[in-house]
Amino acid sequence: MADHNSTPRPGRVVVIGLGRFGSSLARELTAHGSQVLGIDSRAALVQRYADDLTHSAVADTTDETALRQLGVPDFQRAVVAIGTDLEASILTTALLVDFGIPHIWAKATSRQHGRILERMGAHHVVLPEHEMGERVAHLVTGRMLDYIEFEDDYAMVKTLAPAGAIGVPLGESRLRTQHGVTVVAIKRPGHDFTYATADTVVKRGDVLIVAGRTSAVETFADLS
Fold first, then answer.
1. What is the DSSP letter of 169?
2. For the domain that residue 213 is a member of, what is the CATH number?
3. 3, 56, 105, 185: most buried by Cβ count inside 10 Å?
4. Cα(97)–Cα(99) distance, integer angstroms
5. Alpha-carbon distances, residue 163 vs 18, 56, 60 (angstroms)
6. Using CB atoms within 10 A of its CB, is residue 201 exposed (0-12), middle (13-18) or buried (19+)?
7. In angstroms, rounded to a whole number, what is the distance separating the alpha carbons of residues 130 and 108?
8. What is the pLDDT of residues 28-64, one digit of tens each?
């Protein structure tokens, strides 16, 4: 059971829904030192992950009284990881918003589901299957070594240095002016990543971490 101290403490997270996504997230948070309360309506799942989490409980998360008894309103951070039951996902998110929890992440199974969760008041909407599909698609094409897309049409990619950037300092290569991207870090073969500066000279075989608008970094990666 959760402790009932009414004073919110950092590092405490309630994860609602212990399916594949929720259980993986909850265990990862616990492994990194967070105190995690995992809640699910399915007793078998709660029992399966009970030893991996700080606290766990079986409850109907659309029941306000049940969530209050578990001390959920005391948490600063909450994740609604319910996927297939859209009604439970939306109602649970609405309850967390009513509790005034300042940081609410909610899993969505579609963009429409995500828009509803945002309208209900979720601060962050996650579409894990969609986002992973996009990321893998970029990697399968071979243009990028890694790819991360953020909100507001912004992304970072790991890619090999294109020929046009080789042999000159970044400050003189005019990558930002010509391509609309910023080189954040650079890795030489056999060395660790280091921050890139205007004086950094790019060499053949260097791996770059590049940030910018999604279309700009995708176009830049095509040059490598």
1. B
2. 3.30.70.1450
3. 56
4. 5
5. 48, 54, 58
6. middle
7. 9
8. 999 888 999 999 999 999 999 999 999 999 999 999 9
